[in-house]
Amino acid sequence: GSKRANPKSADEMTNENLYLRSAKQNICVVCGNDGYHIRNYIVPYTYRTLLPEQYRTHLSHDIVIMCPDCHLLCEKPKKARMKKMEEKLRMQMGEAALDMSPVIDDPVLHHIRSCAIALVKWKDQMPNEKVASHDRTVREYLASVCRKEEGKAALLSGEEGLTKAQLQKACSVNYRVKNPNFMEGSEVVVKSLKDAKDTEKFIVGWREHFVATVDPQHMPTGWRVDNPVVCGSRKDGDAYDGVKSW
User: Fold this and answer.
1) Does the global pTM surpass 0.90?
2) Which of 30, 32, 53 shows the shortest CA–CA distance to 214?
3) Which of 100, 141, 181, 234 has the most other CB atoms within 10 Å of its CB?
4) What digits encode the pLDDT tens for the residues 166-208?
5) What distances in angstroms separate CA 190 from CA 53, 103, 182, 205, one per listed residue?
């Protein structure tokens, strides 16, 4: 079938100018419903925000409005395509990228938590030197997160035993931290776009997916899958109609 959501205008204006000048109807682009609407990003928002500025200058072309039902109908296959795209790229990056977790264990924080748990559960059965070592580890951590100077001093002096609340705080320390080497799926995808040609193909691919998925019947006049994708006009003599506006 045709890639275009609307037939080409006989007017002398380019499709893009026609799109920019046309009155936009406040109806769902898929079914024409004129009730409550949701903004829908033809190119997923998480990707759009990471693209270079020239691809985000004219935001209107690939943002459309939909009724909630059509929005849901569109989002499921969009998310499936995103997942497939991201997994394929991670596979190409190698096994390490596939297994990489967004969070990792911080060994220092994990040790602090282990010391606190040991003091709560097994203090009576532990050798004195181990108790003292664990106690010092927990105190140093609690002092590092204590805002009051006198509180810090009291913890580090060790004159008073650790309270149940203090031990509980150390037992509850979150030792799972953000993995500095982890890349979000959206980053993996956008970083794979090497040049303007890749990026244009990427954007047009999402437009094609959108049309194939929901077959919109009420797109604004002049909207086309192959409309330009960035701001800027074509050079005279170029066969292609430039890359501008989305």
Assistant:
1) no
2) 30
3) 141
4) 999 999 999 999 988 888 899 999 999 999 999 999 999 999 9
5) 13, 21, 15, 14
